[in-house]
Amino acid sequence: MNIKEDIRPISYIKANAAEILEQVNETRRPVYVTQNGEARAVLVDTESYENMKKAIGFLKLMTQGERDIVEGKVLSQEDFFLDLDRELDNYDTVRS
């Protein structure tokens, strides 16, 4: 992390927005925006942002799965596929 390039006051961002966006997209490093000496926001490139959203979504699914296991909300593989076959049979019957 290059502190001089990666932490900028809001006034600098306002005056140099195009330059900052270019920096963020080229380096893939976030820029921390300060206001009155306090960190207020983080600018990231869109690809990094999308990757973070996907990672957070995956972690949420993992957490829910772990919670389901602890609470005993699980099916055996055999029961799962039997239920799936029944659902698909019902779906085919309704469509016909």
TrEMBL record:
| InterPro entries xref list | Antitoxin_Phd/YefM, phD/YefM_antitoxin, YefM-like_sf
Superkingdom of origin organism: Bacteria
Q: Name one Pfam family in it.
A: PhdYeFM_antitox
Q: Which family does it belong to?
A: Belongs to the phD/YefM antitoxin family.
Q: Which NCBIfam families match?
A: phd_fam
Q: What does this protein do?
A: Antitoxin component of a type II toxin-antitoxin (TA) system.
Against PANTHER family, the record matches this protein to:
ANTITOXIN YAFN-RELATED, PREVENT-HOST-DEATH FAMILY PROTEIN
Q: What is this protein called?
A: Antitoxin
What organism does the record attribute this protein to?
Answer: Desulfosporosinus fructosivorans
